Amino acid sequence: MLEQFASDNYSGMCPEAIAALLEANQGHAVAYGDDPWTQQAADRLREIFETDCEVFFVFSGTAANSLALSSLCQSFHSVICHELSHIETDECGAPEFFSNGAKLLLGSGQLGKLTPDTIADIVLKRGDIHYPKPKVISLTQPTEVGTLYSLEELAAIRATADHHSLRIHMDGARFANAIAALNCSPADMTWKQGVDVLCFGGTKNGLAAGEAVIFFNKALAEDFDYRCKQAGHLASKMRFIAAPLLGALTGEAWLDHARHANACAAYLADQLAQIPGLKLLFPQSANGVFVEMPEHVIQALYDKGWKFYTFIGDGGARFMCSWNTTRDRIDDLLADIKAVN
Ligand SMILES: *Cc1c(COP(=O)(O)O)cnc(C)c1O
Predict the structure, then answer these.
(1) Domain 14-249: which topology?
(2) If you placed Cys at 68, which of 25, 48, 188, 197 could pair as Cys (CB 3.0 to 4.6 Å)?
């Protein structure tokens, strides 16, 4: 299939992941994560985050989020998240299922972001025994609509979290794109802002599968290995999850791939903004571009074989760039849009 913009998970594996996978495929290794690649991938993440955190690997982002959240709250607690968040709209109830019923409390907010006020309103709405007690704030960085929480915004949310004794979960399915865009250290975006648990995405940034669940609050990681195993997320041949991730995390490959995807999105956004009748719905910050297009343009693009989603975020068409998006293919898309507009 030609390159598409429907999702960054349409892309294949990056060369660093492939090379590491082949290298790990030599001889036998101890199963269930007691292999050198798993140890090294976890150590590399501790190095990248400049702290002694607990690291686990699971197959999907849905599992990462759901298992992480279920270790942050009891079944009678609630999780405050944005109404557009993946955990609410795209995980088939898995966070509620794995937490045995913890409720998601939805907040609205401009640009796909929660604010301290929205969070406080939700917390203060009810304080009685009849309502699930707010326990966690879940933030998506970058957000579902491709925007970013600034470090200042994260700090303000952290203050609210501290005030109301809330824990912070970060859905970082595209965490690399956030770091590449804000150009800050991974530590500055996470534990230094009070993030207790980060779901660190690998798949969308060039792996076949694999997400890391990183506990900065190590006490919350107690028995998490059992939680993963029970949920069917303990890979017996763990080295094949860990090695490609380690390959991508070696040097700056993971950041270079994210920088490339972000730069492609910046170019696409810039070009789309110049086409009459089209309107960018959100400021482009990471690797996604959201644009309002006339219905006949959307239909004509589908007819020409382009694949993209129109149901993510607030409507409009979403175009995602990935680690191996090419300028030529973006130009093909732009040419087709101009031709049918
Ligand atoms: C893709 C994505 C996930 C993970 O989805 P899976 O399909 O379960 O791997 C989680 N959060 C966000 C914001 C995503 O975009």
Answers:
(1) Aspartate Aminotransferase; domain 2 (3.40.640)
(2) 197
